[in-house]
Amino acid sequence: MTRETRVSRAHDEAFMEFVRERSLALRRTAYLLCGSWADGDDLVQESLSKVYVAWPRIEGAERAAFSYTRTTMLRTYLNTKRKFGREVTLSVVPEQPVDDHDTALAVTLSALLRELPDKQRAVLVLRFYQDLSVPQIAVELGIPEGTVKSTLSRGLAAMRGRLDDPSDPTNPTDPQEVTP
Question: Quick one: how far is CA 129 from the chain centroid?
């Protein structure tokens, strides 16, 4: 066995271990970004294929590898949306049940999140799901902190506005639409 083969096999094993440990967290983030498990799985797969190519450079620091992968996933998501435009989806119950949360609230928030523009959705997911700070989000997305703050503010205002207006017939908080 040559040295290159051993190094390549070691990189592959390290990458597979990383995927086993972090795939659930990546998949959840992708679901929140895409609004469906199938699209989220596609996003994770495409992002991991890009990370695999760069793995020899980023391997070793678990936290850096996860951050690199998450950034790759966010940029892949935003680039795909820029290329192909936004899909219009109806509010539907997620394919998998939410275990420890209020199901109706989770469905409502997921529906509201899907209605936001892509960048607002990405910022809200990073801030409230990944619990990143404004400076960390700015680094992840490669945008100024002021843009993160204004995008976050607009996204929250849009979601609050939709929650505050129950008379809107397209409001996903309408109790007739959300069935347990």
Answer: 9
- Helices (H) and strands (E) counted in the chain, each on its own, are 7, 0
Place of tokens 């509201």: 112
- From the first residue on, what is the mean pLDDT of each consecutive set of 10 residues in the chain (180 residues)? 64 89 93 91 94 84 84 91 58 56 74 90 91 92 94 92 67 44
The CATH fold assigned to 1-87 is: Rna Polymerase Sigma Factor; Chain: A (1.10.1740)
Q: Which two three-digit tokens encode residue 52?
A: 């695999």
Q: Which fold has domain 90-180?
A: Arc Repressor Mutant, subunit A (1.10.10)
Beta strands, E only, the chain: none
Tell how far CA 116 is from the center of its chain.
13
